[in-house]
């Protein structure tokens, strides 16, 4: 229901005004499969083809009848929904299905991942941030135990006159009154430096133009500076690496190398050895970078990312929140690139379009069991969304994975149509990116356009929204811009996309391309 006309507006005041200004200010009243409906001024229901589909959370479309029917029976059966701290076998049922799928899809995978449930994608990412920090802290504790032991041994050896303290670059030993004094000065300095290092938070690795959520920790993994920079003081920092330059990754990570000072006795001499310190918390990766205009990782980047994580010893966290659950034609998009993760995140389509659910999966070799009680949330792992998740998984896996095959086939068909438009408008379209039902058309930069409105909108990053507004107004198709410059338009419909939908989409895109080619800026303005 919309707010009474003229009444005070408490929610979305700025957002709604802005949506109206770009031609996207519509309230939808009904939704099914790939179609949204709104009611026009004459009271008529107007269908809109939805290519946004809940930002990729509707692999089976809006209000899928099988999922809705299942939800109704779940509610009718009075299934317990919130029963925290009791045995909730549905959590294990979901994890068992996920592990069977992971075993099939992950190269060399053993399908042994522990599951922690969450309410949203960003929460699943933050769960991974926390778990990676637990792992890192354990490695730091092991290191500091060793350095403490070595320091004690040095004390004993120097006290017994079995060792002397060598000159070193860390302390000048001014005014030291003997070997024990020199050692204490050295240990104090090493201890001071080590304490400083240990007090620093981790540095995370992610790819340029990554999107991993908007909560306190996850926003630091999302590169967009407008969303990230105001909050840098709240969480650990991220080093963003270029996915298109895998050859540069090792060198970039090498720059983060830092060491703990270990004071030990070697052949009767107390020396200082630098030990690699685990500064890097984790490497977060989207197999298909949604917010970067639906760019899939290359095989070379995937291999390099795995190699970097193995070299550094940090977990590789494959964020499949957007790309997972079948959208790319496999359950995990990362399986296309042969990328094996230590942790995985899933969300969006696991909610079946009617529930909120997310899960983080941790390989058993790394999982710290105490985490099961360290992280919890009132609503996570609830009986209702779990029942929906099991239904979605059953639908995905049915008929030997028919849904994945449809996603791949429909995606190929849609990509073919988008590519045909790109081929006919090379002056206007830069490229078509993506895989399966995770696609984007990237338009050429219009900041140097001859049409003033086009130039202006492109400079303010608004061109993509105006294109979306026009496609909605004139073609009754809902798309949204994506990509760091907002130059791309995203397509992530459900598997029920028809040939007729694809033909309409191609027609609308040709219209937009003609406007851009003709520099007809006025037509874009609502
Ligand atoms: N990671 C990825 C890859 C995403 O695409 C998203 C959402 N677009 C998130 C994390 C955050 O998920 P949510 O919006 O549910 O918090």
From TrEMBL:
Any GO molecular function: pyridoxal phosphate binding
UniProt-listed InterPro entries: Aminotrans_3 (IPR005814), Class-III_PLP-dep_AT (IPR050103), PyrdxlP-dep_Trfase (IPR015424), PyrdxlP-dep_Trfase_major (IPR015421), PyrdxlP-dep_Trfase_small (IPR015422)
Transmembrane segments: none
Keyword list, A-Z: Aminotransferase, Pyridoxal phosphate, Transferase
Cofactor(s) listed: pyridoxal 5'-phosphate
Pfam family, one: Aminotran_3
The keyword Metal-binding appears for this protein: no
Family in the record: Belongs to the class-III pyridoxal-phosphate-dependent aminotransferase family.
PANTHER family (alphabetical): ACETYLORNITHINE AMINOTRANSFERASE, MITOCHONDRIAL, AMINOTRANSFERASE CLASS III
Protein name as catalogued: Aminotransferase class III-fold pyridoxal phosphate-dependent enzyme
């Amino acid at each position: 229901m919309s707010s009474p006309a003229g009444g005070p507006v408490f929610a979305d005041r700025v957002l709604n005004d802005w949506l109206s200004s770009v031609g996207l200010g519509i309230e939808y009243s009904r939704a099914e499969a790939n179609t949204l409906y709104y009611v026009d001024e004459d009271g008529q229901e107007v269908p809109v083809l939805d290519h946004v589909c809940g930002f990729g959370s509707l692999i089976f479309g809006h209000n899928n009848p099988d999922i809705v029917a299942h939800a109704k029976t779940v509610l009718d059966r009075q299934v317990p929904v919130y029963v925290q701290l009791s045995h909730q076998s549905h959590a294990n049922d979901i994890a068992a299905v996920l592990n069977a799928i992971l075993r099939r899809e992950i190269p060399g995978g053993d399908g042994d991942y522990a599951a922690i449930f969450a309410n949203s994608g960003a929460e699943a990412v933050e769960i991974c941030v926390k778990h990676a920090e637990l792992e890192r802290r354990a490695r730091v504790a092991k290191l500091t135990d060793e350095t403490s032991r070595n320091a004690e041994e040095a004390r004993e050896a120097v006290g017994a006159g079995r060792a002397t303290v060598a000159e070193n670059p860390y302390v000048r030993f001014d005014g030291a009154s003997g070997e024990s004094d020199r050692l204490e000065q050295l240990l104090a300095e090493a201890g001071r430096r080590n304490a400083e290092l240990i007090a620093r938070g981790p540095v995370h690795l992610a790819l340029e133009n990554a999107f991993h959520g908007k909560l306190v920790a996850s926003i630091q993994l999302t590169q967009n500076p407008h969303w990230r920079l105001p909050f840098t003081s709240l969480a650990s920092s991220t080093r963003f690496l270029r996915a298109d330059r895998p050859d540069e990754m090792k060198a970039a990570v090498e720059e983060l190398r830092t060491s703990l000072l270990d004071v030990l006795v070697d052949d009767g001499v107390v020396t200082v050895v630098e030990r690699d310190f685990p500064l890097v918390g984790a490497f977060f990766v989207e197999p298909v970078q949604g917010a970067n205009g639906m760019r899939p990782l290359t095989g070379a980047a995937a291999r390099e990312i795995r190699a970097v994580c193995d070299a550094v010893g940090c977990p590789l966290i494959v964020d499949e929140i957007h790309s997972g659950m079948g959208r790319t034609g496999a359950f995990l998009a990362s399986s296309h690139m042969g990328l094996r993760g230590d942790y995985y995140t899933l969300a969006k389509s696991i909610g079946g379009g009617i529930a909120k659910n997310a899960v983080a999966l941790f390989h058993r070799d790394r999982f710290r069991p105490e985490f099961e009680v360290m992280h919890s949330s009132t609503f996570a792992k609830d009986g209702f969304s779990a029942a929906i998740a099991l239904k979605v998984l059953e639908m995905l896996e049915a008929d030997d994975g028919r849904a994945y095959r449809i996603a791949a086939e429909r995606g190929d068909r849609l990509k073919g149509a988008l590519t045909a438009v790109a081929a006919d408008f090379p002056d206007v379209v830069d490229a078509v990116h993506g895989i399966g039902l995770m696609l984007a058309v990237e338009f050429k930069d219009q900041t140097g356009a001859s049409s003033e409105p086009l130039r202006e909108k492109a400079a303010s990053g608004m061109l993509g929204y105006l294109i979306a507004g026009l496609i909605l107004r004139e073609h009754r198709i809902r798309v949204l811009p994506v990509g760091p410059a907002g130059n791309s338009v995203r397509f992530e419909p459900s598997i029920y996309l028809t040939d007729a939908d694809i033909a309409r989409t191609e027609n609308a895109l040709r219209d937009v391309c003609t406007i851009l080619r003709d520099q007809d800026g006025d037509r874009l303005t609502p």
